[in-house]
Amino acid sequence: MPRTTFRVPRALLAATATAALALATALTTATAPAVAAQAPAARTAAQAPVAAPAAEAGTAGTATTTAATSGFWACSVPSGYTYTSSRSSYTCSGGGSYRTTEFYVQPPADGLWACTTMPGYTHTGVMSSHTCSGGASHTTRQYLLYKPVTGMWACSVPSGFTYTATQQSHTCSGGASYTTTQFQLRAL
Length: 188
Hints:
Layout: H1 10-36, E1 72-74, E2 82-89, E3 100-106, E4 112-114, E5 122-129, E6 140-146, E7 153-154, E8 161-169, E9 180-187
Antiparallel strand pairs: 1-3, 2-3, 4-6, 5-6, 7-9, 8-9
């Protein structure tokens, strides 16, 4: 009996991949608030949330107090904010037929895995992930933000602090095989 070969059109493959990505985003979005509700000290790099909720958390008259629920999707990152996820979408292209990057914007907070470092904060851990790469295939770094205090081990020395000791660790290398320096902070 002759063998029959069936070829799937590229458009169908692309549509299937897009639907799978949308489903994965929806599933991740549905579980992100539960992951974000964990105590920041209990999280490890492997347990960090990988996506932020897709919808704005509050309404015009409702104030929200936790960083995990005060975020929103935006076309740019306003001054004083960071972002915890990015995605490629048509939303910010002005009706164009091309994709641009959209950011899940949040105010900086202790225990927040952010895609950028922030003034007034230091970071105590670094991890590599796809969360901040806007849907690209490469990994980028995420930083575990904390307000600096004397005695804290941090990956950087923020303004207004010096350090009294150093140690080598994988904590600040973003999952790389090499070690980097951590600093024990002291306020000036």
